[in-house]
Amino acid sequence: MHNYTIAELVKGLQSKKFSSVELTQHFLSRINRFNDQYNAVITVTADQALQAAHLADQRLAFGSAPALCGVPLLHKDIFCTKGVRTSCGSKMLDNFIPPYNATVVENFEQAGVVMLGKTNMDEFAMGSSNETSFYGPVKNPWATDCVPGGSSGGSAAAVAGRLAPGATATDTGGSIRQPAALCGISGLKPTYGRVSRWGMVAFASSLDQAGPMARTAEDCALLLNCMASFDDKDSTCVDVEIPDYSASLNKPVKGLRIGVPKEYFSEGLHPGTEEAVKKALADLEAQGAELVEISLPNSSLSVPAYYVIAPAEASANLSRFDGVKYGYRCENPKDLQDMYCRTRSEGFGEEVQRRILIGTYCLSAGYYDAYYGKAQQVRQLIEQDFVEAFAKVDLIVGPTCPSPAFKFGSKGDDPVAMYLEDIYTIATNLAGLPGMSVPCGMVEGKPVGLQIIGNYFDEARMLNVAHQFQQVTDWHRLMPKGIS
Amino acid sequence: MIIERHEIEKLATLSRLSIDEKTITDVTERLSSVLDLVAQLQSADTVSAQGISRPFQVSQRLRADEITEGNHRDEFQAIAPATDNGLFIVPKMID
Description:
The complex is a heterodimer. By secondary structure, chain A is an alpha/beta fold.
């Protein structure tokens, strides 16, 4: 059952080939057997899952259940889950049990989806390797001495390792697309405002966006149908009509104009990755798409702009963690200042503290204009590059990451080496555009991701192209060793 | 760009973080490396750009000034580190 796609599981549940309880027991048993190898799941909600599966089976028996009713999923541990620990991968929230559900969790619960548990992640979603989690690193199912990517590394590894057919994730600078690429699965970051951020622990509020991870584009469409909603509780949620993302998957790609940014094929791109991406572009061309060379001239400034804007927003967002109302509090504080300082230094890991310090620096008097103001201006230039590109093309396609999964610890002590992992993904977050990654090849036994960037609220077209690509390729069907 | 040790100490105070003696050299070095990266922004010609704080000029909606939530004090205080009689307890601030 673990090799079925979500679309196949939906059919199986609706035709009573198997029950939700059987399916849930199967995935719980896989988590129990294999999670030690991957460290992808940090909380398993077995009793709650079986109870939800029983209810789903009852709804399915009546014949009027929503599409995803009875399908088991995992949630990234950044989404608040009522009565279930939501740690955000941090010691700071190791004891945090939210009294409410995030809107994304609520949407899935209303649809009868079964939550199997919560996935590991980089602490507060800050990282590209899942090495910053308080609960230890996640291992890539394709090569357990390599990282799964981050920050949604637990979700990606769980889907690749067949511990769940799909998972929720979030993306602030590439945290859905990069781990999806490194783990050989499909993942989609929607347009900013498409999915509610309510109940999702905030990292950088003008960049954060939730999205689905699954093995195929067809499954991502099914999950996005449930995740996307207009939410009064999130003032940045945009009230734009939500299409049925499954409806246009089968449209031919003939005649589509696909932009290929020349800046995404420059120095630093692994030759094997470049070859795989160029082969994928040729496949799309063979299907009738027209390839158009484009330029995104300010793309090299996206990483520097991001590392001002994201830490600036993070330093403000994370000021709420002070040991007063919830989360970790240090032992025996001597006064209020001591409590604040020790709570935060003991509760946050090294990378989170570094980003708070950078953000505080960039926002401080005397530096604000030179850093934050300048980064906002560069952000506008980057957005304008995309606006001009989308006047000429329907989609933009290129690599998701510069290279395949790297070994643990191989980025050394220099944080900048890690930050450059997201060189091709960050610009879409700055512009608020949707982007996705689908598997498009293998290099040194590890997967390569193809990034598809769409215009605002054009997720349906991205999913259409990704699905058509998956009709003529089988990269998404490959399995890591040891999984049968 | 080199950031000085005293600046790190000031940032730590502003950020309510304690940085111990053993790690301050490493913190200073790594922060300098990140500031070198972001210094690349200075080369950008941004004369034509006003700057944006969020994507595609999306503006935050306002809502009617109405109460939409009930009182959840007990639920929220149940997960607090220390409470007493409906109050959040913190170390003494004034002698």
